[in-house]
Amino acid sequence: MVFRRSARRMRWLGCYRLRPIWKAVLVFAVIAFAGQLLGVIFNKSWVQPERPRSLFAFPSENSQGSSLGSCQPHTHIMFLKTHKTASSTVLNMLYRFGEERGLKFALPVGYQFGYPLPFIAQRVKGYRGPHMEDFDIIGNHMRFNKPEVEKVMPSDTFYFSILRDPVALAESSYAYYKNVAPAFRRAKGLGDFADNPHKYYDPRLRNNHYARNLLWFDFGLDHNANFSLPLVKRGVAAVRRNFKLILLSEYFDHSMVLLRHALCWPLDAVVSFSLNARQQVSSVRSGWVGKAALPAPLALTDEQRVKLREWNSLDWYLYQAFNLTFWEEIDRFGRSRMEAEVALLRNRREVLARACLRDGGRPVEASRIRDKTIRPFQSGLVKILGYELQPGLDNATWEACLRMIRPEIQYKDLLDLRQFPRAQQPPRPDIAAGGIQVVRESLILRTEDQGGKRLVEKDWDGTVMLRNQSLEHADSRVRFR
């Protein structure tokens, strides 16, 4: 009896003394749980929606995709960067992929490999002889010359390029190179040129290659040759022999799926935002309008479109041949499988656009981009658009987003500087009398007049490449000498 009373007393005493402690623990747990719950709600709903740090995980188990199996990613790549074919967007992918993995780029001394001259290995910066350097990726503009490329790139290099309908390419080429190609400069408009191209075209004049069979020229073929079936068949056979994959800019997303599987790359490596896009506006309107509205100098009738195909008959045959090959590749891949992967790619692009870009991902005029270092270079009749980043991104997301929108010239400068520190590349002292030298890493710009209003970009061999409207478009790293 005594023992039982003592036990009850001890239990009561223990519970009584511990009851405040239990209450404190319970209150603390409730407060902690509520704080965590509010923090999750606050962070996800109000601070940075859809911008987690894991957006750009390279490599990522989910981004690789089970359909790629156990293949190893290709890291030796040659991309023939054809003109006005969305090739700047493709080059951005190569730059990103190589930069993220520490690969070595075969870079030109300027911005193109002596274009429009045929490529030679000596135009690669740091080249010391056949296979004395280990280059992984080459993709800047060149006129293709396979024997010379093979001196630079490893034997297991994956070669690919991209084509575009010659009429759409002619529209873009005319808009971009109006003041560069004499044939375009003399014509009142693209329609005027299409009606009688022989009136304006002189094959002996420099830079007129932009006005006829530009694809054929970029592939290293004779773009002024008279059309014949044996000739074009030999040209197509040469391209098939030298390149493992030919993409089409009109079916860009389908092309990226094919490229991704051919290279065994993760999904994020081929997700992109359109770079070097033209603003489609008329001469009396401003702001963004749809692609259906073209400036008056670019307007074409159906008859003029037919004439342009005839004028670019070598390119038209090349495009038709690889259009057929392209859809044969998709049939082998599987139409339903392709559509599923295209949907996956587009969904990922939308997610990244919401996370990375202002204005819902819509490209904007260069003058509206606050960060001058990411303004795209301006040339020709229409404005070249760019992007602005969302504010408030964490460092990792900001860097990954910046890679996706960094313009080609600035990206090449960055890679060049990393491979060849500034101390090792003193600027060239020579300059034409009366001109202004502008140094941006390895870039040489010269003015056409004393006023400094029209800039001409020249490669190391003197090739005129692009023109700018004024010095205000140069980024903040430009220095005058």
Instruction: Give the radius of gyration.
Output: 29 Å
* Low-pLDDT stretches: 9-18, 37-54, 57-67, 281-293, 425-481
Order of helices and strands: HHEHEHEHHHHHHEHHHHEEHHEEEEE
Strand content: 5-15%
Euclidean distance between termini CA atoms: 106 Å
Mean pLDDT: 76
The largest β sheet comes out as: 5 strands, antiparallel
Helical content class? 40-55%
Task: Enumerate how many helices there are, as a single number.
Answer: 16
Taken from the alpha-carbon principal axes, the silhouette is: globular
Spatial strand arrangement across the major sheet: 10-9-8-7-11
Backbone structural class: alpha/beta
Which key terms come to mind for this protein?
five-stranded antiparallel β-sheet, four-stranded parallel β-sheet, 481 residues, 8% strand
What does this entry look like structurally?
The protein is α/β, with parallel strands linked by helices and 481 residues long. Helices cover 43% and strands 8% of the residues. The protein has helices spanning 2-47, 61-64, 87-100, 146-152, 166-177, 182-186, 190-195, 197-200, 214-218, 229-242, 252-263, 302-311, 313-333, 335-356, 395-405, 408-419; strands at residues 77-80, 137-138, 158-163, 245-248, 364-365, 385-386, 438-440, 443-447, 455-458, 464-468, 479-480. The strands form three sheets. The protein has a five-stranded antiparallel beta sheet, with no helix packed on it. A four-stranded parallel beta sheet has the order 2-1-3-4. Helix 3 links the parallel strand 1 and strand 2 (137-138). Helix 3 runs parallel beside helix 16. The longest helix is centred in the N-terminal third of the chain and has 46 residues, at 2-47. The radius of gyration is 29 Å and the shape is globular. The N and C termini lie far apart (106 Å).
